[in-house]
Amino acid sequence: MISTRAADIWSFPMMYKMARTLVKHGFKVCALCSRSARRSPSYEEKEAIRVSRIPRPWPFEIRDKVPKLFPRGLHEALAPLLVVAKILIAALPFALRAAKVRADIYHCFHPCGLLAGALAKGLLGGKRKLVYVSIDDYTYSTVRSYSNYLEVPADSTLLTAIWKVHQAFELSLVRRFADLVFTLDCVGDVLYRKYKSVVDDVVVIQTVPEADAEVDDDLRRELLRKYGGWKLVAYVGVINEPRGCFNMIRAIERVREEIPNVKLLLIGDTSDESFMRKALSFISEHGLEGHVDFLGVVPYPKLHTYLSVCHVGLCTYLHVAPGAGKRSSKLFLYMRAGLPVVASDLPGLREVVKEANCGILVDPRDVEQIADAIIRLLEDPEYARELGENGKRAVAGKYNWRNEEEKILAAYESLRRDLRS
Fold first, then answer.
1. Domain containing residue 34
2. Residue 354 maps to which CATH number?
3. Same domain? 121 vs 154
4. What is the rounded CA–CA span in Å between residue 12 and residue 237?
5. Are 295 and 309 in contact (CB under 8 A)?
6. Tens digit of pLDDT per residue, the chain (421 long)?
7. Beta bridge pairs of residue 314
8. Cα–Cα distance between 284 and 294 in angstroms, integer?
9. Co-location of 9 and 110 in the same domain
């Protein structure tokens, strides 16, 4: 398995769940991840998964470095090529390490991981198979990122060029090297149709959790001591503005007026420096230091314990990719923990929340709506408990990993038969 992103296997739910599924059914799994923290060991073996970590190469910081090297106008002109250059250079060390593993199947996450797997497969030749896992509309995400960074409209000529280059690059790799694609259940089957146009075997999965999760009793006692007396509102995921995190902080300022012992726990990656500067400045200006905690990345197996001491879960994305995002993994994690949710009234999120009757839908741009929903849930514990139990039942009965596990194993058995023939 190859993931070049900052998230380690222990904090990347889809990678972790797939690895555990394959190990449980007799596959030997080696995970190649980024070594983004010095304290992370270069190699470890845990839960029968061998993990090898590779230092993150400089292209991950390319957007910060390039403006210092080139005038802004030239940077903008080169942006479509820089998108591909970043992926290419970042993939090379992973490709070399992957080739040394000499795996039968290369299981790749994100376009950069896809390129690393494709290079390893091409170097080694033979009957090796390549599996690509696409859990997002990466072209859309890339364009949004460059739109924010370059401060140009998403429909500009420049961003259209980036869109075309990125999409063509990803699909050409899939067409040439991928034997199987796993992708998400999306509105209008957008991602399924995208990959089906270039490869025959495309399997749709959902970002749902395991039906059951263990609570770490020692950790839970520690958290209860730390947060005793607080009403805890949780967010899990990458921490940035598009995922609604700044509006969450603004909402907590409003909630504090009614509920003085409210605290927001932001659990996830905090590497977006511009967002963190903005958020910390707001927190300081409004005296929210005691009401907002940035906990950083929590290993996936520990998330359920953290959520077990919370009272409300937030999933207030500002927008989703066109057609994408029918489901949200954080939404299901909250539901499994029995938390009532406050979620964006957007396609997919709306469908799940209404069907399960597990939370309150809001306009994610409206801070007052978010705050009012949180206040209602914290001030009416019986209503909150009812919504939380509804979500818990929905995960136990429908939105859990059992069905996805069966799809993964069926697809892998087909690959294994091809390798043996």
1. 2-208+401-420
2. 3.40.50.2000
3. yes
4. 10
5. no
6. 999 987 789 989 999 999 999 999 999 999 999 887 666 789 999 999 999 999 865 544 444 444 444 444 545 556 667 777 778 888 999 999 999 999 999 999 999 999 999 999 999 988 899 999 998 888 888 877 777 766 777 778 878 888 898 899 999 999 999 999 999 887 778 899 999 999 999 999 998 999 989 999 999 999 999 999 999 999 999 899 889 999 999 999 999 999 999 999 999 988 888 899 999 999 999 999 999 999 999 999 999 999 999 999 999 998 765 554 556 889 999 999 999 999 999 888 999 999 999 999 999 999 999 999 999 999 999 999 999 999 999 999 999 999 899 999 999 999 999 998 8
7. 342
8. 14
9. yes
331: which 2 tokens? 């939404």
Side chain identity, residue 324:
A
